[in-house]
Amino acid sequence: MYAIIRTGGKQYKISPGDTIRVEKMEGKTGDIVEFKDVLLCAEGEKVLAGQPLLPNVKIVGEILGQKRAKKVIVFKMKRRKGYQKRQGHRQAFTSLRIKEISIQ
User: Fold this and answer.
1) Do the bridges between strand 38-43 and strand 57-68 make them parallel or antiparallel, or are there none, so unpaired?
2) Order of strands across the sheet that contains 32-35
3) Residue 84: helix, strand or coil by DSSP?
4) How many other C-beta atoms can be found within 10 angstroms of the C-beta atom of residue 14?
């Protein structure tokens, strides 16, 4: 069984027991979250596709932690002008474990 969900402007293919990294969500470690934006759900040969969402599919996940990714360096330069700018960025993310996918 798997499903495709939308969260944080991205789409993720998930199965029960998967650990995924999504854009930062509100909540603390150990909190339970429920996803409402389910685009597709498949169980064996049975496939349910939303138009655009499936209202009767429930996906439950547990927050494993709130962290920040490795630093990405943004470097800008204009040749022959003496202009150089260096900036770093660390994107925040939430680690989740998918507990169950249920069709109601």
Assistant:
1) unpaired
2) 19-23, 92-103, 57-68, 32-35
3) strand
4) 20
pTM for the whole thing? 0.85
Q: What are the percentages of helix, strand and coil residues in the chain, rounded to 5? A: 0, 65, 35
pLDDT confidence of residue 86: 98
Provide CB contacts within 8 A for 93, sequence distance 6+: 21, 22, 23, 24, 66, 67, 68, 69
CA distances (Å), origin 19, targets 9, 16, 86, 93: 18, 9, 34, 13
- The fraction of the chain above a pLDDT of 90, given in percent, is 96
